Amino acid sequence: MRILFVTPEAFPLIKTGGLADVSGALPASMKRLGHDIRILIPGYPTVLKKIINSSFLCTLYNIPSIEAVNILIGEMPDTGVPVMAIQSDLLYDRPSGPYGDENGKDWDDNAIRFGILSFVAARLSREDSPMKDWIPDLVHCNDWQTGLVPAYLHFMRHDHPKIKQAKSLFSIHNMAFQGCHTPQWLGPLNLPAKSFQIEGLEYYGQLSFLKAGIFYADGLSTVSPTYSKEIQKKEYGFGLQELLTKRGNEIHGILNGFDTKEWNPATDKYLEYHYNDKKIAGKAKVKNALLAKLGLTIHAKTPLLGVISRLTYQKGLDMLLECAETLIEHHHCQLAILGSGEKSFEQSFQNLAKKFPEQVSTNIEYNEELSHKIMAGSDIFIMPSRFEPCGLNQMYGLRYGTPPVVSNTGGLADSIVDSNEVTIGNDTATGFVMPEINTYQLLAATRRAINSFHDETTWKKIQTNGMRQNLDWSNSAQRYVEMYEEILNK
Ligand code: ADP
Questions:
Q1: What is the pTM for the complete model shown?
Q2: Residue 122's pLDDT band (boundaries 50, 70, 90)?
Q3: Residues of CATH 3.40.50.2000 domain(s) within the chain?
Q4: Ligand 1-lining residues (CB < 6 angstroms)
């Protein structure tokens, strides 16, 4: 199969969250399975710098608002997956992140920046593309930034029905990010005014890129089976639950795998000491090195709770803030926090570190190296998300012998088996699941984790159960192939 994989971020070129990890690893697995896959990504400065062997491929003309863009082609570092970058200084040559400035404020022209990503993907997915020797069978779109690809393909087919074009798959990695823009962007994006209606692009008076993807794509998927059901309910559907319910039978829920070479405690390039499921002792050395680095006191019997996260309401860390003092003072825990996001969360975690300098380390930054060190050096990973489409960190926690405390939602529910007498007895327990999402349940589940931590035999069982899970992309990539085939045969 020939697949165009369109994404706004891909590790190691550029990353703000889990989508980048998926976009780095899934195409590589597809390539290993023998499929002809290429990534299409905006040419942000870091992307242009990191692509290997890049060269000019073609110029695309008649682009909405900006007339022309160049397409470069090169390879992903490490995996060699072909990657095409859209070069446009006007759109993508900005300092700071892919979506906004250093204060986290979205760029005002994101509608155009990602509308054009979508337009280019659609143009490259048709027989009249200037890239004549490489027309994809299927275009795989990811999240709102690519939501207009299926819409453009729909309008292009309407205008030129005889020209063959690729089928589209739209993967939802997070319903909370909708890409809503004022309808004034319809003109600059060359979108037909009549498409701005309920049966089309309109969402409560706004132009919604997410809705466009859901409405027009030939196939739909989400990143875990539980989330594929949850988004059809009011609590998780962000107003799109009815549309999703109409297509309910078609929505595939496929749990993400992850790059088990990048995330492997036996070889991790960021760690001074290594360990595996058979020789777990090295983990204690990693923990001590981490505590020393973070300036926390070293006590072998004190459980270190790790958090690596966007600091947002979705991630439920306000609940951790509410019970943190109890955990520190009554349960003698330490906390290593890494993340950034909403200012109020950042401030509260910083205040906590000031109040308990020997117990709490708060690191407000994005730091790949420290994230590996915290994942490996912590005893328990805390992830009480209010909703979690898939989540990767809990899976990294399994792999690193850092059993997670998670809420019972989305991919957390699909990837973690709660520890109890039965699951410990049959060697399936891998973590601690909160039956409901509130502070008391977080406290209760963390207390259960701490009690198990103090029981060496039980703890080792839970750790090794998690470390032995098969979490790479092989199973899930095969399921994507089956879904691609199903869409192509529709
Ligand atoms: P989401 O995509 O919702 O943010 P996921 O758990 O799916 O959450 O993936 C988050 C990814 O981003 C993980 O690879 C995690 O390690 C990484 N990450 C999040 N915050 C940071 C940070 N501050 N520094 C380094 N890595 C981070």
A1: 0.94
A2: very high
A3: 2-257+474-488, 282-467
A4: 17-18, 21, 308-310, 338-340, 366-368, 371, 390-393
